[in-house]
Amino acid sequence: MPDNLQAFAESYPTLIAWLETLGSAVVAGLVTAVAYRVAWSIVSRLTRHREVAATVIRFVRGAGCAVVVLVVLQIVWEAAPDDLPRLAVVEHATTLALTIALAWFGVRSVGGLAEGIVVTHPLSVADNLQARRLQTQTRVLARTVMGVILFVGIALALMSFPAVRNIGASLLASAGVAGLVVGLAARPALGNLIAGLQLALTQPIRLDDVVIIEGEWGRIEEIRATNVIVRIWDERRLVVPLQWFLEHAFQNWTLTSSAIIGTVFIWADYRLPVAPVAAELERLCRDDEAWDKRVCLVQVTDTSERAMQLRALVSSADASLNWDLRCRVRAGLIAFIQQKYPDCLPQTRVEIGERDRRPRDDADATPSRKRVPAPTA
Q1: CB count, 10 Å around CB of 196?
Q2: Predicted local confidence at residue 12, as pLDDT
Q3: Which of 100, 174, 243, 322 is most buried (CB neighbours < 10 A)?
């Protein structure tokens, strides 16, 4: 018998065994995928009225299918003959893929849960303080948990290789020095991670908070793993490290409530009566929808040698409305003074005249003159 025929005859049982195993794997995978799709459709219909559960199920659809199919394939490989060539390599590859799929499933589950909480607590409501608090905690904690899941998944995937396990065992003796080196190298990242957890728990800032940082007025647009994105009023973006908020003082206008009191300063002449200005301010506030009917007041807060300073206090439900209200109140009060009391705008007085207007005596008024005799010839 030729050598090639003899080799084929010897490998024929192995080939048949592999074909049977692969056929079983394909059939089991297809059946599992179809069953998973049917089950996913049923669960989706049952949870369509529950926003959080529906969001989680939608997020884990692909990852869940991969996990289930890989588990079934692992069972098929376990049921295959032990003497099947290269079966250990296939099992290792399936285990590695299953580890990655489980990490993917965990990340998507946490992301779906976070998204469900965010969707059920929108920021578009009038009083969104509770929503901003929940969204901030959810996003920061979700990113932290997803980072831990990814780290564990990658570590388990690498530990499935014998060479990596041997390296890990050899490095275990010098774990103290290695930990110190890694800690020093990863200090910024670890510091931002800890700062993110502190911000999530203590919440000096939340999403959509109005803050003043380095003299810039803006809103917290996004809280990332290492920094915070602040949207400035003119559409610029200010990127601030997480640790900065723990080490520096800043203004948060919406820490306990979004309601705020704004000020409008106007300089006027001393002859301006304050009562009509206060009445005009009340009229302007009553006609403006941005006023929340809490504070509407005029006070004389400063004086100088030329004019006095009037301060108008007006309140609104949030900073954006208050800014618009202050601009309209400022323009309205200036127009009122120009129309009703034009002479009471700030002025500079200059008086031009003789230095001394006091009456003088006749002797002082007519100076004495002495007659000098004419010379003779």
Answers
A1: 24
A2: 52
A3: 322
Burial class (CB in 10 A: 0-12, 13-18, 19+), 364: exposed
Helix (H, G, I), strand (E, B) or coil at 288: coil
Helix ranges (H only) for 186-263 are 187-202, 242-247
- Structure tokens, 79: 């049921």
**What would the two tokens of residue 107 be?**
């990340």
- CB–CB of 314/325 below 8 Å? yes
Question: What is the reported pLDDT for 185?
Answer: 52
pLDDT beyond 50 at 372 = no
Q: Return the CA Rg of the chain.
A: 41
Position 4 pLDDT exceeds 70 = no
Pairwise CA distance, residues 76 & 188, whole Å: 46
**Token digits of residue 18:** 């592999």
Q: DSSP string spanning 73-94?
A: HHHHHHHS-TT-TTHHHHHHHH
Q: Report pLDDT for 314.
A: 95
Protein fold of 139-256: SH3 type barrels. (2.30.30)
> In this structure, are residues 136 and 200 in contact, taking their beta carbons and an 8 Å threshold?
yes
Architecture in CATH of 260-344: 2-Layer Sandwich (3.30)
**Dist CA 52 CA 54 (whole Å):** 5
pLDDT tens digits for 116-167?
888 888 877 766 777 877 888 888 888 888 888 988 888 888 777 776 666 5
Taking Cα atoms as reference points, which of 29, 30, 101, 112 lies closest to residue 66? 101
Residues found in the chain: 377
Q: Which of 275, 279, 325 is closest to 300 using CA atoms?
A: 275
Distance (Å, rounded) from C-alpha 223 to C-alpha 232? 15
Q: Are strands 216-223 and 308-316 parallel, antiparallel or unpaired?
A: unpaired
| Percentages (nearest 5) of helix, strand, coil residues in the chain | 60, 15, 25
